[in-house]
C-alpha cells in the first residue's frame, strides 16, 4: 500500500477492517503502530506481537543469541535467518533506500520499486524469526506462549498511543522554579 495516496489509504483501511481478529506482527511496533494511528485507524482491539520486543528478550539474555547491536538485520543474522552475504546486501539496500526516502518527496518508478523492495525485506523474514523465537522458548522451557507475546503487544500499543498523542511532559512550574 502506498499510504501517501488517498485511494491506497482507503484500500488499506478496508484491509485492516477485513482482518480484525487476526494477529498482526512486525519488527518495530512503535513505527508500524504509529503509521496505523496516523492513518486514522483504531488500534485498541488489535491483536499484536512486536518481534523486536520478543527477539530482544532472547538476544539480551540467552548466551547463544547475544547481540550487541539491536536492529532487524543484526537480529536476522544473529538468529541464523540470513547469512552474512544476505546481511551485506540487505544493509546496502537499507542504506540506499533510507537516503532515497529522506532526500526526496517524489519518486521515479525505479526509485519506488527500490523502496518497496526495502519495505518487503522488513517483513519477508518475520515468519522464520517468530518460529525461531518460539523454538528458543520451547527449548529452554520458560513457559512463554503466544498469550504472553500478545500481552507484551498490549504494552507496545499503549506506549505507542501515548507517544502519538504526547504533547510533552506535565511540569509542576512552581516546584521547578523553586529548584532553579
Describe the structure.
There is one protein chain. This protein is 63% helix and 4% strand. The protein has 180 residues and is mainly alpha-helical. The chain has a two-stranded parallel sheet with strand order 1-2. Helix 2 (29-38) links the parallel strand 1 (23-26) and strand 2. The protein is globular. The mean pLDDT is 91.
Q: What would a concise description of this structure say?
A:
The protein is 63% helix and 4% strand.
Low-confidence segments, given as residue ranges, are none
- Oligomeric form: single chain
What is the percentage of strand-forming residues?
under 5%
- First-last Cα distance: 50 Å
The share of residues in helices is 55-70%
Order of helices and strands: HEHEHHHHHHH
Overall pLDDT score: 91
What's the total number of strands? 2
Describe the global form: globular
- The tally of helices reads 9
Structural class: mainly alpha
How are the strands ordered across the major sheet?
A: 1-2
Strand count, sense and barrel status of the largest sheet are: 2 strands, parallel
Distinctive features:
180 residues; mainly alpha; globular
Secondary-structure blueprint:
Blueprint: H1 6-18, E1 23-26, H2 29-38, E2 47-50, H3 51-59, H4 72-78, H5 84-103, H6 109-121, H7 126-140, H8 146-165, H9 173-179
Parallel strand pairs: 1-2
Helix pairs in contact: 2-8, 3-7, 4-5, 5-6
Amino acid at each position: 500500500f502506498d499510504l501517501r495516496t488517498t485511494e491506497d489509504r482507503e484500500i488499506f483501511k478496508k484491509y485492516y477492517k477485513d482482518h480484525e481478529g487476526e494477529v498482526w506482527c512486525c519488527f518495530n511496533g512503535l513505527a508500524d503502530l504509529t503509521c496505523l494511528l496516523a492513518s486514522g485507524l483504531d488500534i485498541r482491539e488489535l491483536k499484536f506481537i512486536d518481534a523486536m520486543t520478543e527477539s530482544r528478550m532472547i538476544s539480551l539474555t540467552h548466551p547463544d543469541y547475544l547481540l550487541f547491536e539491536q536492529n532487524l538485520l543484526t537480529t536476522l543474522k544473529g538468529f541464523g535467518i540470513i547469512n552474512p552475504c544476505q546481511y551485506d546486501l540487505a544493509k546496502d539496500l537499507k542504506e540506499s533506500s533510507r537516503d532515497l526516502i529522506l532526500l526526496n518527496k517524489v519518486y521515479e518508478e525505479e526509485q519506488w520499486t527500490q523502496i518497496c523492495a526495502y519495505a518487503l525485506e522488513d517483513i519477508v523474514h518475520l515468519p522464520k524469526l517468530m518460529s525461531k523465537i518460539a523454538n528458543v522458548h520451547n527449548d529452554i522451557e520458560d513457559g512463554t506462549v503466544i498469550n504472553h507475546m500478545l500481552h507484551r503487544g498490549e504494552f507496545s500499543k499503549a506506549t505507542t498511543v501515548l507517544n502519538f498523542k504526547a504533547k510533552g511532559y506535565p511540569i509542576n512550574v512552581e516546584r521547578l522554579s523553586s529548584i532553579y
